[in-house]
């Protein structure tokens, strides 16, 4: 069982935050408890910055990656575009424990494009693709990703409890897991992804409860908590605010350009995937779009129902088989549907 959860919603701008259980092994969850967002970082930070860069015509989703990262021309990745990375259609591997074989992000940047699938081979959900998008952002803006996020997203939107590396209030945060246990198991079993790295090659495995430090191994060990794929901490209130801003933008009175946002939300070669945003399909139609995060997080927005749903949890903090984030969110979605949709 998942020790603690926050279920938050914004229905026509009216917010509700409900909580249950423990944020760690003995302290109760409260409405302001922060959480490691995992891959929800992909939309709140990386995709959001890229939308603003597209809006300002600084970049285009049709731009080839090698325009900004010249090494890509050497690895048979010519033709891969920013849009391909956003849609997970670049051919990059899904995941790799880069921190085992690479000493820093600069080294990793040189090897990410070497292996993987052929460009055009279909959708392969890729952390490495969003690490690459983070590299593109830093090259384009000439600044680090953490500063770019503050300038282009958190400061303009007033997300006062959202930042990289650690929560704003380290005394009130979900403990995410028992050390690096999940990634150790992934490498040991080679499930769900095969890797060439071995456990014995790395000596800095974390074996303490992760509370206030980034859960994702690549983000923590290699990128010091700041990456395009993971590293943000936030609260339910801030995520509701972010989702509400997206809804306002779709009506032409928000921070993001309506046409740019609509283009990012439109499904591409895969009905479940837009540019950065993933889709939840119900009865053949998009019910929500947003993203999930490995620690047990979901941000979902429905323009048709004018609502935002946020799930925060510590599903990995258990000695049992963790609940799936999708299952926890499906129950939440069903509850909200029964409660508000007549």
Automatic annotation (TrEMBL):
InterPro entries: Beta-lactam-related, Beta-lactam/transpept-like, Diverse_Enzym_Activities. Keywords: Hydrolase. Residues 27-322 form the Beta-lactamase-related domain. The keyword Ribonucleoprotein does not apply. One of its GO terms (molecular function) is hydrolase activity. PANTHER family: BETA-LACTAMASE-RELATED (PTHR43283), BETA-LACTAMASE-RELATED DOMAIN-CONTAINING PROTEIN (PTHR43283:SF11). This is Unannotated protein. It comes from freshwater metagenome.
């Amino acid at each position: 069982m998942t020790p603690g959860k926050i279920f938050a919603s914004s229905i026509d701008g009216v917010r509700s935050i409900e909580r249950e259980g423990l944020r760690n092994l003995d302290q109760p969850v409260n409405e302001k408890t922060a959480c490691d967002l995992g891959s929800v970082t992909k939309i709140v930070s990386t995709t959001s910055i890229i939308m603003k860069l597209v809006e300002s015509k600084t970049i285009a989703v049709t731009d080839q990656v090698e325009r900004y990262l010249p090494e890509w021309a050497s690895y048979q990745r010519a033709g891969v575009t920013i849009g391909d990375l956003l849609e997970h259609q670049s051919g990059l591997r899904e995941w790799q424990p880069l921190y085992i074989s690479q000493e820093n992000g600069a080294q990793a940047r040189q090897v990410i494009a070497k292996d993987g699938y052929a460009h055009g081979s279909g959708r392969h959900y890729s952390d490495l693709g969003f690490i690459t998008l983070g590299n593109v952002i830093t090259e384009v803006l000439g600044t680090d990703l953490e500063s770019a996020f503050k300038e282009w997203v958190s400061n303009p939107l007033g997300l006062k409890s959202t930042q990289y590396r650690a929560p704003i209030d380290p005394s009130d945060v979900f403990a995410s897991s028992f050390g690096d246990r999940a990634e150790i198991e992934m490498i040991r079993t080679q499930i769900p992804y095969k890797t060439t790295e071995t456990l014995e090659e790395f000596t800095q495995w974390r074996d303490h409860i992760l509370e206030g430090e980034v859960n994702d191994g690549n983000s923590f060990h290699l990128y010091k908590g700041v990456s395009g794929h993971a590293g943000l901490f936030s609260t339910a209130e801030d995520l509701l605010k972010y989702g509400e801003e997206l809804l306002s933008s779709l009506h032409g009175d928000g921070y993001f350009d309506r046409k740019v946002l609509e283009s990012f939300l439109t499904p591409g070669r895969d009905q479940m995937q837009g540019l950065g945003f993933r889709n939840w399909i119900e009865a053949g139609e998009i019910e929500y779009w947003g993203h999930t995060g490995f620690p047990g997080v979901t941000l979902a927005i429905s323009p048709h129902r004018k609502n935002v749903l946020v799930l925060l949890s510590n599903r990995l903090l258990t000695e049992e088989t963790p609940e799936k984030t999708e299952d926890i969110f499906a129950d939440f979605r069903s509850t909200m549907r029964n409660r508000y949709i007549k």
